[in-house]
Amino acid sequence: DPGAEPGTLHLGIVQGQDFTHALPARIAEAQGIFAKHGLKVEIVDFSAGSDLVKAIVGGTVQAGEVTGLDVVAAAASGIDLKAFYGTASATPMAVIVKDRSPIRALPDLKGKKVGISKFGSLTDFTVKLIAQKTGATDIKPVPLGAPSANTAALAKGDVDAIILPVEFAYALQAAGTPVTAIRIADLTTDSQFGTLAAPGAWLDANQNEQVTALTEAYAEAITYLQAHEPESVQLAVSKLGMKPAVATQAYQELSKDFTPTGKINTAGLAAYAESLPGLKLAQKVPTEQQYYDPKFTAK
Amino acid sequence: MGIEVTGLDLRYGDHPAARDITFDVRPGEFVSLIGPSGCGKSSVLRALGGLLRPAGGEVRVDGERVRGPLPTRIAYVFQDLALFPWRSARRNVEVPLALRGVPRRLRRERADELLGKVGLAEVADKVPAQLSGGMRQRVAIARALASDAGILLLDEPFAALDEQTRTQLGAELLRLLAEEGKTVVFVTHSLLEAVRLSHRIVVLTPGPARIREVITVGTEDPHELHAKLTGLLFS
Amino acid sequence: MGIEVTGLDLRYGDHPAARDITFDVRPGEFVSLIGPSGCGKSSVLRALGGLLRPAGGEVRVDGERVRGPLPTRIAYVFQDLALFPWRSARRNVEVPLALRGVPRRLRRERADELLGKVGLAEVADKVPAQLSGGMRQRVAIARALASDAGILLLDEPFAALDEQTRTQLGAELLRLLAEEGKTVVFVTHSLLEAVRLSHRIVVLTPGPARIREVITVGTEDPHELHAKLTGLLFS
Amino acid sequence: MRLRWATIALLVVAWEVACRTLVRSDDYLAPPSEVLTTGSAYLAQPDTVAALTVTTTRFLAAFAVTALLGVAVGLALGRTGCLVPAARDMMTVLYTLPLVPFYPLFVLWFGLGFRSEVAFGAIHGAVPVVLGTMAAASRVDETLITATRAMGAGRTRTLTMVVLPATVPDVVGSLRIGAALSLLGVLLAELMVSVDGVGHLIAALIANLRGPELDAVILAVCVGAVAVNVLLQAGERRLSRWREQPTPSAHRVAR
Amino acid sequence: MRALVYLAVAATTLLTWWLLTVTGTVAPLILPPINEVVTALRQQDPVVPMAITTARAAYGFALATLLAVPIGVVLGRDQLLNRAYEPLLATVAAVPLVVLYPVLAATLGLGTSSKVVLGGLYAFFPIAIATTRAVQQIDPELVTAMRSMGARGADLTRTVVIPSALPGIVSGLRVGLGLALVTVVAGEFIAGDEGVGYQLAASSQGYQSAALFAWVVLAIALTIVVNTVFTAMATTLERTLRR
Ligand SMILES: Nc1ncnc2c1ncn2[C@@H]1O[C@H](COP(=O)(O)OP(=O)(O)OP(=O)(O)O)[C@@H](O)[C@H]1O
Ligand SMILES: Nc1ncnc2c1ncn2[C@@H]1O[C@H](COP(=O)(O)OP(=O)(O)OP(=O)(O)O)[C@@H](O)[C@H]1O
Ligand SMILES: [Mg+2]
Ligand SMILES: [Mg+2]
After folding, report:
1. Best interface-test mutation with E: which of B12, B86, B93 has the largest number of E CBs within 10 A?
2. In the 8-state DSSP scheme, what is residue D102?
3. Is the full-model pTM beyond 0.80?
4. Contact (Cβ atoms closer than 8 angstroms) between residue A44 and residue D191
5. pLDDT tens-digit profile of A78-122?
6. Is A158 at the interface with chain E, CB within 8 A?
7. Which of C95, C227, E103, E108 is most buried, taking the most CB atoms under 10 A from its CB?
8. Are C77 and C142 contacting, i.e. CB atoms less than 8 angstroms apart?
């Protein structure tokens, strides 16, 4: 049983083919940064944040990189999970429309059908955020499930727009579907997308050993990533399955959003927390202490 | 007319089952086929009914060359019976009637009548697995009689029957055949039966079957005939 | 010792197959069971071998009450043969040998020897579907002989055989049985055969079977005996 | 034989034509010519080979468990007689149960990686094998069973001597379904949680709309399943030669 | 007997579940306590999603049956076609189609039709394979006997082929129906906005395991109902066709 091997840190990532989610960990792995910090890390890829959280709760995975929404939603459900390091605050999410679509800007979404993954997901949150910030009311979110189903629905014209990380737009373009991506990062500054999270108990017990090493490794990896375009693009091609052109585009668009300091945008987490009742993910808004452990980002 | 068999050669793959078989069966005649076990009697019967394609020679029924089954002219009792395991005795007997388009009520009546003749009125509703070996054989006989074909090919139809039943059925069969003028080719391993029932007897050699002799019954004394047959077979 | 049958009652569900059957078979004895088709002979044989649970009464073999199959003591020839369709004749005969743990080479030798005795040496490699009806029956006989059980229960083992073969096999069987002192219960529908082979004959009534009479052969003149049996059965 | 290859060729041509005229986008379904060029180049990459190896190993392990467990349980249940209807209903329920929500339990009990994925594959594959084997075993000719028992075979020998040979075609038929489903189970597990393997690769290729590579990987995955199928078929041919009617002439007439 | 077995299995399952949660062996997030699931069960409105999923599965299954049984009969009867296509059938059956669901969705859309097709595809292969097998195993003597009595073509199929092969076909249908149902659910799980699969996906999205398992329980209930109906229908079918 690999999970029983002592010393190995199982690090979960969600949607391991997403640039923002996966690249720092993959860099750290490929460049030997984890090893340099005395860590033996095995990266485990989960298709859904909830599965990753379940694995953390079950103890098979010690820490994971999830979205801020995952952390606060778990905490609101009484799960001992705390954000301790921010990898990227700005969201890579974008509204993707066909080139010929009349939707040219976010307010145009008023009354349109927009593909999301599921109700209560980050994409659902994004739709609500757009409505709230731009006044585009009556947006009809259509739950479509997997990203591939979203792109298929958009291509067929079943929905007017979809919400996915921006690199999906590049992939669609590269595959011959003319689409335009409208990023939503500047809608709000209160955002905390990529977040390392672990059970509070584990953080307390490990604060001077694995956790610190992990945060340091992440910091080094992100610094390296931002300084080495060719290597990072190459890794996105080989590990995340991107086409080279798509990887380059994604790098140029998204690499600046990574936060080497690990600083967590608490306002971003709070925004997620407040959205929980609206997303029907929890009745009560959790408090910051429930989902945030500030000990490790202080440095 | 009847059946004319000319120079029939039968084989299973490389294995010869019969060679150069020539004989005929006149309309209304009862002809028995006898020969040692495994010599090829069933195979010849299959060829007669168009169920086994000859490797050589030919079979003609009413002057027409046989190329496949002739259900309106020929009815069968198979050596291994071939009853439908999921159908009751009655519904087994009904099969040829249904295939001829006889309406349901009449079908049932006729089947019951035939089952009565073979002494199975009481077990008409049982499926073959619930019948004794002899009972199953009688169902197969009843089924063959249900067909209105003019020719009956019977492959050891009485093998599993006790002497009383086979004597009774044999007599019944003869009466029925005479009434309706049916033509019969009868495979049996009972010399007595062959002598008692047949107009002519075709004696086959050990496999691959050839014709050893064709004997006309009635011209000789039954005892002598029996002795002669025994001699032919046991030599 | 041998077999003792006391007050045996047999039924299939509601349907009675035999009532109050009492007889015994002494060690080394050859006992025939005769009766009309469907009367319950096969059922009695099954009960003797522990394959059909009595509704009443009991069967004892060598003094011990039979509650299930006794493969080391009893070997069978089933009326419907029960050959393995996927095994060649030889490998069918090998089954009881294999079950007894006889090593492969010896198994083969013994099977070939037995197949030779029943005249099937040449078709040892064929599967049942490639054999004639009589050949299949001989495979079943060879298989029963392959068992070293002291008691043989034979259910119409010669039904599909021609007279020559059955006479030969009957003689062979008798010789073998005498040599090895086997006990035999033999179901047949041939009175002649019963008279020729048996020490005693158990005559059953029409179904549900009861004992009509148990006749000891040898004390009477064969012709009278045959006449008597015919009288018993045809009455 | 020729008929089969002709059909395959026809299908491939139809696929190519359809892709070039109707679909016109190789996001998921690429024309075979591109699958052959772009796709096979991708297959040759060491990472891809490694992933394929890992998944094939898992699939083979899952199928081995499927086959052994499925056939054994199926035979045992099929011969209990009275248990058959109940067991059949139970198995059908298990079969129709969406297993995905239970995968976290698999991870918890079997650990990450090999064992949980194999277990997930095996549970997908075993159920149809149990169902098929059980149904076949309960239909075996009772006369043969009685005869074999009378010759001294115990439960196990009756199973191996009568039930198993008599059920070979049905067992092999259900093993084919079982093979397909255990492969599916392994892939689903890898898609949900993976450290490596093809599931991971497929997720990435789907997300990045790389049709030719995706199709090539799927085809490569199927090769494992096809190999299992070929072996099964060869085994079946050997075991049920007796069923092939040795009377070609008789049969042509009888058709 | 049957009821006893059901009771025993149900009791064992519930007991194991209860023990696992009450002893804390498994966290409530992964396996929620029974009473919470019961509460969650009361809050669901299962009729519409179940009806949608059942209808889709039934459609797919019906399509598959209509195609697979005739194809299986032909492949079982004709040695030549069998040699040519049976291996092909088994090979295509091995393609993990659920994984490729987006491909299907891209052409058929995400609505009912793609789910019906997916369910149908999965149901098709077990039915076709089982039918082929069952037809191949028909006693050739019965066919010969039937032909000698004058049956041909459709008659032969109706009187010998179908009744003989029926038990085998029914066990294939059972597997096919199960697969149709579970793949429709999987399709809804992967992509869609209605049906039991969607409800499962939606409730697994958040952390309300109780709701998720409530839907699992509902899915089991649906399975039991579908299976019971199927068994009843199969029994009637066997009664009418095997008389
Ligand atoms: N499995 C069964 N289920 C129900 N009834 C049966 C079963 N087997 C036999 N019977 C009935 O039991 C009675 C006796 O059958 P059995 O096979 O013992 O007769 P038999 O004397 O051997 O006849 P035969 O000489 O025709 O073989 C028959 O009426 C038959 O219908
Ligand atoms: N389907 C078959 N395939 C191959 N060989 C066969 C087949 N059927 C019969 N044979 C062979 O053909 C020969 C003749 O068989 P057939 O059944 O015609 O004999 P028979 O005279 O009817 O014997 P019996 O009196 O024992 O029924 C036998 O040697 C047998 O092995
Ligand atoms: Mg014959
Ligand atoms: Mg009998």
Report:
1. B86
2. G
3. yes
4. no
5. 888 888 888 888 888 899 999 888 888 888 888 888 998 888 888
6. yes
7. C95
8. no
